[in-house]
Structures are given as C-alpha cells and as structure tokens.
Amino acid sequence: MTSWVPRLLPRNVRSLAASSENQRVEDGRRHQEAYGYFLPIQTRWQDNDQYGHVNNAVYYSYFDTIINHYLIRYCGLKTGLRTSPTVGFMVTNQCTFHTPVGFPQIPVAAFAVDKVGRSSVHYRLALFPPKPAGDLPAVEHRDFSDGFFFGHPRLAQFAALACTTGSAVHVFVNPATGKPTGLPEDFRPGLLRLVTQLPMPGTTLFSSWLFPPPSKPSAHPSQLPSSRHLLSFRREYDLSPRLSYKDTCDSTQGSQRSPRMITLSQNPQSYLQQFYQSETSC
Fold it and tell me: Which of 94, 64, 97, 103 is nearest to 164 (CA)?
C-alpha cells in the first residue's frame, strides 16, 4: 500500500505564485473601474524636478488632496483642530510609479475605499494622465470644486491606465487625547459609498459606488454614470448585494441601441428608474 506524504511546494514556486498574485492586484489598481471618485489636479511648474517630470514626493500631496477633498466635501470633515471632534492621522502611505507626468499636464486623481474600520480607513488611490491629444483636458471650475464620480463623461479625456497607484491609511483620533476614536456616524455613508472590490485584469466589476446608496442620492444627478459611457457590453455586472444588472448593448459611439434591464434581485431605486427612462440609447 502506497502512503502519501504531504509536501510543501518549493519556496521558489510559492514565491512566484505570490508574486503573480501581487502583480494581478497591482494591474487591477491601474484601471479606472477600480475607483469611484475623481478630482482633476492642476500640476504646477514647481512640481517638476530637474528631470522634467513631477518629482516622486509630490504625488503624495496629490493623493492627500483628493482624500481630504472628498472627506470635506462629501463626509463633512471639519478641519479646525479646536472645533473638530476627530482628526485624521496618516499612518501609512505608499506609491508605485508606472509612467511620469509633468507640468502643465492636468491629470485626474482617483479615490476608492478598501476598508472602513472602527477608527481607521484604508484608501486606494491612483493618478490617470490625460490622453496624448495635444490639448489640455477640457475641465471646468466645478470639476475642481466638486470632483466627479465614475461614469462621468470627463473620464474619456484621461488614459485608461494609471501612471501612479498608491494606498494610504487614516486613523481618526480624539484631538484632545491623541488616542484613536470611533468614526463619526455621518462619515460612514460617504466612505461606504466608495467601498469597492478590486477588478482583476480581464474582468469588469462595478460595485455599489456606481449608484449612490438609496438613503442619500447624489447631490449632482448629472454625475450619475451615463449609459453612453458603459461600453464593452454583453457581460453581467454585480453592482452590489442589492442589484444585479446585465446590459445587452455592444455599442461603440456610432451605433444606436437601447440598454435593457435583464435581472434585478430587488426593485431598483427611483433615481435608477429615472436614469434609464432618460437614457434611451448608448
């Protein structure tokens, strides 16, 4: 009788497997679909270093800008140390650089939430350069003040792959004691809105941030994703535990075909119904 002895894979094989998985995760982070909120960033002459592109240290300020912009604009963060019940301390910050950008380009920063804890928030970040069209992207003052969400037509002006990806962790503390404290309840809806699963290469996965939570519709209906920009179809999207959606439109910009609802696990919210009534073609 033959006896089998379990053996571990050789260390180099295990290392290759881990390396391959890490690469898949990093590749997923480079796609626009991995992010829910976007903010154009105006580069400055002083951002460039002697090599003619934005210095690596400056990217952290871009990411810091979009994080705090979203927290102030959509989560109600108060920035006054004496008036705010909580302040966020950055405990982890990381960047991976793929391709450079430089002044006077206007890239768009991207933001998503990986995890919301009791007192900490894990962020996913990226920077997408403008497409090499020769002209600067046509952004408006409102884009800099409000930002926009995934699906906005402005995203068509930016590259599909990020030039820089990153991550960060905020721990929120009591400013009087300096000790971690629970997140304010009014923070959570805005943060949970951007919690998404990371899409892997070869798949397209949209999560709950594609459509705002039913209890708090978007303040800007024009920023809801347009069916004209949900291309590469005939696949099913699991948007959230509440919604399952499949679009049969296999359009390009030139073809005309109406999107159709295929399956819904529950009745869609009213704003989603209105959205599909108003959007009649791809």
Answer: 97
